[in-house]
Amino acid sequence: MTILFKTLRGAPCGYLDCNELAKSTRNTDPALIGEKINQYHEQAGIEWSYGGYHEVRDTLWANVPYLKKNGTFLHLGVDFNVPAGTPVMATRPGVVVLVDNDHPEEYGWGPRVIIRLKCKPAVYLIYAHLGKVMCRAGQVLQSNKTIGHVGLPPHNGGWFPHLHVQVVTEDAWPFYSQRLPTLDGYGRVEHRITLARSFPDPLPYLKLW
Q1: pTM attached to this predicted model
Q2: Nearest CA to 97 among 76, 122, 77?
Q3: Once rounded to an integer, what is the mean pLDDT over residues 129-136?
């Protein structure tokens, strides 16, 4: 496998619970949260951070309208808090099944790439909040291919710069592939067990260092 962020190889990193970080401020605007993350990195002596799988973000995104309306604060992927423009590498061989962009939707995916990994059982990896995309649907990827770069707001969905990676299982893909407008990075906390069957932890499918 290839490392996910080749330009950050050897750079110090750490785990970050963004919901806990948000409790230190009443303002949960994404831009301010991005500043808080950068401050945390500086104080902790790290250059980037990751975390968020099954994190309950009811403080972090309490003011995001669609999450508040639906009560969907359970994060279904892992966020990688890295600088805008950071190249994102395919860490395993696979085939690109979708490249799209829901800009200018606020709090959306922004530029998004979905790759079907060549593993057993197969899984689908969603890479979201990108800027420049450097692959196309149908393309066969090796594990050293740059698929895109981490984006800036507002074109990345309106979030602070970070990469969201989410897994969809092969069993769940036929259902969600026909309902892509409803496929989201958040779900309801009370559905945690059911959601985990369709959206397992992405970390086992990625190489971070």
Answers
A1: 0.97
A2: 122
A3: 97
